[in-house]
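## Example record

The block below lists the input lines for one assembly entry, exactly as stored, with component labels intact.
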Amino acid sequence: MRPPSPSIPEKEFLFSTLEKSLRLDGRGLIEMRPLELTFGEELGHVDCTLGKTRVLAQVDAKMVRPLPERPFEGIISVHSEISPMASPEYESTGRPSDEEVALSRMLDKVIRRSDAVDREALCILAGQRVWHLRLTIHCLSDAGNLLDCACMAGMVALRHFRRPDVEVIGDEVTVHPPSSRAPVPLSLHHTPFSLTFALFAPSSSHTNISSQTAPITLLDPSLLEQRLASGTLSLALNAQRELCVVHKAGGVPLTPEEVLSAVNIAVQKAKELEKMVDARVREDWAMKKIEVR
Amino acid sequence: MSSRIEILNDGGFRSDGRRQYELREMTFDMAEQAGADGSASVAHGLTQVRVSVFGPREAKMRSQTIHDRANINVEVGIAPFSTGDRRKRSKGDKRILEFASTIKSTFEPVIQTALYPRSQIDIFVHVLQQDGGVLQACINATTLALANAGVPLLDFVCAVTGGVHAAAPMLDLTTLEENDLPHVTVAVMPRTGRVTLVSMETRLHVDRFEEILRLAGQAGGVIHKEMRAVVRERTKGLVDAMGAGVRTSDFAEDAMVADS
Amino acid sequence: MSVVLPGELVPAQHVNLKLGPGLQQEAASQVTATRAGILEHSANNSRWWVESNSRRYVPAPQEPVVGVITGRLGEGWRVDIGSAHNASLDALAFEGASRRNRPNLKVGSLIYARVSLAHKDMEPELECFDAQTRKAEGFGELKGGFLVRCSLRMSRNLLDPNHFLLPLLGSRFPLDAAVGVNGRVWISAKEPKQTIAAARCIEGADPDGGGMDQLALKMFLDSLDF
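Predicted structure tokens for the full assembly:
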């Protein structure tokens, strides 16, 4: 039994507070919940929490024969699944739910289509041996905005991961275990971050889509906000001001200016996130090095 | 994969002889399928899409009824022969599912679903030929099919694809161009000029995005004009057939779903 | 204060022994715990129970609950009270309700009601009045305000007159509250800011969430702007 949709008082209260630019958890409209990254013992193991939303990402690499049509490129595959464990909203029956489709497509776009990982750098021996990276995303708990949390976890896991060093002499490939040679980080072109805005139509007429006043946009919606929002705008972009994914389907229509102002907010946030992620990954690597020695 | 074909040559022409901002030939046909409550077939150049709408009718599955509005069900089929390499996509393909859910959520706020509680509106989309701008064609065809079915809409939804080649924005891309350029599909609601759908999957700088977004907004208006003419024509035909010959002109005006 | 774990023997002995939640009598005079928690008993040792915390509500008669209307059901409504099954609420179980004059509840309305029937083989039933006096006694539809979800322990704490939270909130601003023991608390204050502050305090004081004590909560409340 899926939990029923939010009650009328909850709905009305949320709309009335949003009009006063208040949020139920005391955040500002474009403030994210605190992001925490916990790295595991293994490289490429990241536990990412955004408020109470929690996603685990794990990367592993193995050597395989490349695809015949792309002999110089490594392979990246992303596996994601939303199990009923994350929230009572999700059911484990048969065909994938809309949320699951949206999540796996977003991950695919953010991590694979945006060319975040340099695939040619994963080639060991052209046409013979390449690295196959498997990124597995486990959604542990959904308290709103699972999409951003999952993308973040996935990207950070790729930044945290290091593959064993390999040496190629002629046709012979030697893999050096981490104990003899320091593992090498993946070569990443950029780090896109996904940022989701929830859109609320202004004033009480929240069904009237043709009103002229600007809708309320808020970043990183909580579960209640996400369920009551009339549409979302998902952006994925990197700190270099490059958009990788824009996805807004239906919901409150926006003027081009409103879309662009959301993009500008996202640019700022992406820069902040980049700084934080970079610092955390470095910090963890520094700790690991001491252990190795 | 770098292009072997010049996307935009020095004379300012594209590979198919169009200018930068030129749209391909559009064909809008309404009510081709007699069995459906409303149908439309749309072609943008070589991309061809057909949509049939059934409903509002009783939901096939009771669990899908919503107590205060109509449920919209979108199913997308892509013909295996629609692309150069013949490939059968299964129904469970995540790309197709996402496509369907994009169309569904685009039209959910446009259709006045609150008028038909506990019922269902089925939208079946068939992609017959693909040559770039498939989403754009699907959305335009769905708008026409819904208008044809008499489903009350708040506004048209007009979609167009835009891309950027070396800082030069262009509109209505073909497959050839889509493969090489970052591209955005934008759907606008012409009455307010607001954007209801933006979909981009390739890397693009924020400044370029801004440019293309504004341009696509304008192009949406052009497509709207064409679509309106077709709906007007169709309505006029229907009114004539009813024998209300004298009042045709203003009647057709009244029957318009939206005005400029 | 003694902590018991499931399966542990409990030294409960009395001529007129009554066992509450979390305890079970197996042999003639053997009582074992079935839940982990703190073992409590009444002053004269006749009533024993285990005080624990959970999130899933199991209805018990006479308990006040906050529910959401999820649909109509013949002459009444189906109500979600967070238990395994939806409860039913008869349209006549209101003060002053008659065949002609029935309350106007919509799907999504919140109600404060009492569980009138809870049996493991039947759907729970609710009523919004006292069956003897036929007076509302505070039950009925909850209009406006906001619904906070908390652990069951927290909602029981809020009903305890000795608990610090509601008096503390009441000393800062006027506040209406309806506490359901199903882990749902409805609150309403004049200003939305105050309602938000109250909601965040309940979340903060929840032993299953923030777990703040009186002092910490006072400081937290002072840090909020309302």
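The first helix of chain C runs from residue 152 to 159. The interface with chain A takes residues 68-70, 80, 106, 108-110, 142-147, 186, 192-193, 195-196, 199-200, 224 of chain C (CB under 8 Å).
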